[in-house]
Design a protein that fits this description.
The protein has 11 helices and no strands. By secondary structure, it is mainly α. The two termini are 23 Å apart.
Length: 365
């Protein structure tokens, strides 16, 4: 049995259902967010127990993943899973376990996730640059996985700022979160450019790699979320005019990025439908349909909060409906394939998906 860090994508995709539901500008049944939070906690605890045991029993699994140019990218999933559960615990779990438990738990999960995320954001690209072979058409959405965690740190850290000591400690945390925001945004823009270039030059593979195109929405939606949450936190952390400028940045930055979201979403959807019509197989990459869309929900909700416009309120609700549908489909398929053993015995090395355009080389199923 070979277990990889990509399994933590299920925690991210489940936890974001709770986070997005709790931040919607309209009320929804609390049972949705509560069940999602509880499931995310259960999945996280299970993976934190069984994954290290699996690697300790089969150390070659860890080495195989570290030497795989595709699989290594998903080391970014564990830190994001930790911080997603931290956010869900603050927003949803707090009403059940109390502030005295929820806040310290969130601090620990955020702290560990932030440190691990900074490590993956450096170590994974470094190994990719120096040791691993990459095909000329190898750029894919998974390259974003190790560099997005600092953006998640910024968004979740904004929720923790009110719980930090007033004064310099709180201001320092705010500035660190903006630094995390910047480091992830810049690297994400570089990688998104490479993905666009690969699609333009070589086309799409039509394989299970295609769902990772939705990962592009992750840094987009999460950056809008972080800008909004940090802007709100700044109002009670730093004096004007800096606080008002940072709060205004939530809209000045967020709306243009939201526009790119509107552009990329139909492109990714069209390429996904094309791949599905070409018998795209199921893989854990399908969880890319959940967390990135969830960040678009939270980002749109932040814009609704900062602008009070009906457009953003109802678009957030529509996106949340799509998120719930995607979660159900992916969760059912994951459970079914796991019971059949297909997801627990993946190939020792990730298959090379070959990109092709219409009339070119036929992509693999």
């Amino acid at each position: 049995m070979l277990l990889g860090p990509n399994w933590f994508a299920s925690v991210m995709g489940t936890g974001i259902v709770a986070v997005a539901g709790a931040t919607l500008p309209v009320g929804i049944p609390s049972v949705l967010t509560t069940v999602a939070w509880a499931l995310a906690v259960l999945l996280l605890v299970s993976l934190l127990i069984f994954l290290p045991l699996n690697w300790a029993k089969n150390p070659q699994n860890m080495r195989a993943i570290a030497n795989d140019a595709i699989a290594i990218q998903f080391f970014g999933a564990p830190p994001m899973a930790l911080m997603t559960v931290a956010s869900a615990t603050l927003l949803v779990g707090q009403q059940y376990i109390g502030e005295t438990v929820a806040v310290p738990v969130a601090w620990v999960l955020w702290g560990v996730g932030t440190v691990l995320g900074l490590i993956t954001a450096v170590a994974v690209p470094y190994r990719l640059f120096t040791r691993l072979d990459v095909r000329h058409d190898g750029a894919f959405g998974g390259w974003l996985m190790p560099v997005v965690p600092p953006m998640v740190s910024a968004a979740v850290g904004a929720l923790l700022i009110p719980y930090a000591a007033e004064g310099e400690v709180r201001e320092t945390l705010l500035m660190l979160c903006y630094a995390f925001f910047g480091m992830s945004l810049m690297t994400s823009l570089i990688i998104i450019t490479l993905i666009w270039s690969r699609l333009a030059h070589f086309g799409s593979s039509g394989s299970a790699r295609v769902p990772t195109l939705w990962v592009v929405l992750g840094p987009v939606g999460q950056s809008i979320t972080a800008a909004g949450a940090l802007g709100t936190a700044a109002l009670d952390t730093v004096p004007p005019p800096l606080s008002t400028a940072l709060d205004a940045f939530a809209v000045v930055f967020g709306v243009p990025m939201w526009g790119f979201m509107l552009l990329w979403m139909p492109i990714a959807a069209a390429l996904t439908v094309r791949a599905h019509n070409r018998n795209m197989g199921f893989a854990l990459t399908w969880w890319s349909f959940t967390f990135p869309v969830g960040t678009c929900v939270t980002g749109t909700s932040q814009l609704a909060k900062h602008t009070d416009l009906t457009l953003f309120r109802w678009f957030a609700v529509i996106l949340y409906g799509g998120l719930l549908l995607a979660w159900v489909v992916v969760a059912v398929r994951t459970l079914r394939q796991s019971l059949q053993g297909n997801l627990l015995t993946p190939p020792a090395a990730s298959p090379h998906a070959v990109a092709a355009k219409e009339g070119g080389q036929s992509p693999p199923a």
